[in-house]
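Backbones bend. We report:
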Amino acid sequence: MGVPQGKRCLIGGGVLFVLSLLFACGNANHDDESLGGAGGETPIASTPTDDAFTWTGNTRLRVVSESGLLANDPPGTTIVAADTVSTRGGRVQVAMEDGAFTYDPPVGLQNVDDTFGYTVGGASSAVTVTITLDERVWYVRNDAIGADQGTDTAPFLTLAQAEGASDENDTLFVFAGDRTDTGQNGGITLMSGQRLLGEGVGLIVNGLPLVDPVPNAVISNRALLGGAGNSPVVLLSTGNEVAGFAIEAALGEGILASGGSGHHLHDNSITFDPINGGEGIRLLNLTGSNAVIANTIVGSPRNGIKVVNNEDLAGNIVAATPIIATVTMSRNIIDSSEREGILVNLSGTGTDVALQILTNTIDLSGIPANVDEGININSLGAAHITAVISRNTVTHSAGEAMDLAVDATSSMAAFVANSDLSVSGAVDDFRAATQNSSVARLCLELINNVSTTLPLVPSTFRVANNSGEVSAFQFFEALNDTPAVINPPNSITAVPEGTCAITLPGAALFTANCAICHRGNGLGFGNVGPDITNAALSTITLQLSSNPSMNDIRLILPEIVAISTALSPVP
């Protein structure tokens, strides 16, 4: 919740409960001192102060007495009358005895001020309460009873109603309801800046938790089966957040972006119709910074996650769209994709993409009929890719666990570390190559990748320079299960660690490798371990190397340095 204008901290309640914070938020603007001189002069009572709050459209505001209408007024002030309807038609209920109140905004109102008044005993005029309404939330609950207006107290019954009522930058919040896709099975197309949130991640408004996270809301595109064209469950625009859903892709993708930037896709589970389903998440022509975090994708008939810039919506290969972007894929679980777990195909002059592929778990890719990989990254044409790939577990792939390739005049700088790449169907668990007759460039640092999967068979690695130019492939390796096989022999240029000059994303590595990053948990999983936020590098290194609570973490010194830099206090 923001600070009210000119008054005090705002404390409110929300959709399911009232927050009873047992303190007043300060008296900086009160004028409640007794004014008088020596000799017992009669004190002069000060005047009650207007109130100002910031809130969100379509959402009931409940303010408890400790921060209510009388909290900043002189002691002994009493309310004798109060409006029941605001100037814009909102509903108001004021508790005369203590100043607590409830305010229901008019349906759909946003980005405006609304006011109501109250009168105190002895005052000559009413005190004004101003409520600034920011962007609104449209609510959906498929088992709601009563009027369906899209508010928290009278939610829409269908997702289509929310889609039709909303505009750019709105939030659409879907309760779990009856935990089926009833009323939520026609897919949805988001507008710019919209957030689509399910009850699985709860709801926070202005810093206050209004709905606790409970099981995911269910959405699908089941009603679109048999229709023409590509109809994903969720079609993105730009700047979209999608979280908290069980997404059932009966047709095409679970989530599809046809461009845009600033997407944040997290904490969803995605399942498929095995015949008509497509990718779990397909991202076309992205720009800017984008994140795909903590999703579970099971049984994709195609790829779990696909990032490309040379396809149309139907999946046909087309001329590449030049893009400059950062794509973070972290803490996803991808199981039983019939093609790759993660596939990246980026092509063309002007394409420069940073990939952060961190702490994902990928199993059974390319099963049963294909020979595809767990993670497959291709820099094509004249594109450039910088890839940081750390702490992934990739097992039981039909082909290699991980495959990196460059062709034509493209280039790639890749840092591959700390991963479990094992039980692969191919000859080797890891492969990196420049393609035949190319002048492509590949710089690879391959560090501390070992098998931890039972039965414990060491991970194997192969690097191949097929371009015919020795300097085209620069390679550093250390601490892996086995030395890489170089094909053909002596075709690779050995270089010192750090030659590829890859900037490691300390903040992303920290987030990917902690459960509760700022609550005394350091980099460990669970609820144990020290808080290393703002700690010195020596402290972080010591904890990672010696604290048993952090045994799950395998990071090398350059990553620890990057994390330390990201967590250090700003001077």
In short: The radius of gyration is 29 Å. The chain is about 5% helix and 35% strand.
